[in-house]
Amino acid sequence: xxxxxxxxxxxxxxxxxxxxxxxxxxxxxxxxxxxxxxxxxxxxxxxxxxxxxxxxxxxxxxxxxxxxxxxxxxxxxxxxxxxxxxxxxxxxxxxxxxxxxxxxxxxxxxxxxxxxxxxxxxxxxxxxxxxxxxxxxxxxxxxxxxxxxxxxxxxxxxxxxxxxxxxxxxxxxxxxxxxxxxxxxxxxxxxxxxxxxxxxxxxxxxxxxxxxxxxxxxxxxxxxxxxxxxxxxxxxxxxxxxxxxxxxxxxxxxxxxxxxxxx
Length: 263
Fold this sequence. Notes:
mainly alpha
């Protein structure tokens, strides 16, 4: 207003000055509002922009757990030995059943067992989480591979993430931990291979949040690391489901810190 008095004293229009001031104030308010909207909206529209400015808008148990995982880009896969995990070589619950059959029975419906042992799954129906397709499973030389058991955190990925330093007992425990095993479409399992979330995600987008959350939980339980790219990929997925919980209990983490390798 003081500027308008000066202009009036110099013979300029008071009303014109006040109109200009009101327009300036209005433009400043609009600019501030646009800045706020852009600041909140852009990270949602473009996750890469959110990452570049250090904004994360995801919250929830899975996302918070992911933040606790150690990031390490230095591990290699030298000396990887799949056999050292002894998959299907243990019977932790002592029921005499193969871990593959236990997972098949858990994840499929309409399961029929071999009456001779009560363990071997002869048939069942899988609603495959990776593809979203329904698979009619029948055991046989040419059909069993239609449904395979996937290590959600792949064994080779675990090796690169810290399992290379475990002793044989810890590796066998990890290799047969049902919390890290899912019955899935055989083709999808082969496509995944040993890839982390940075390089492979399920075709079924509706399962991606739970898939990544399970990887997070398993890595947290076993003290495994993630790479920078892996963590970024996990973050992008969990950003789409801020309420995602962890599918397994992580309260009792495994002491996977060992000073020697015994294989």
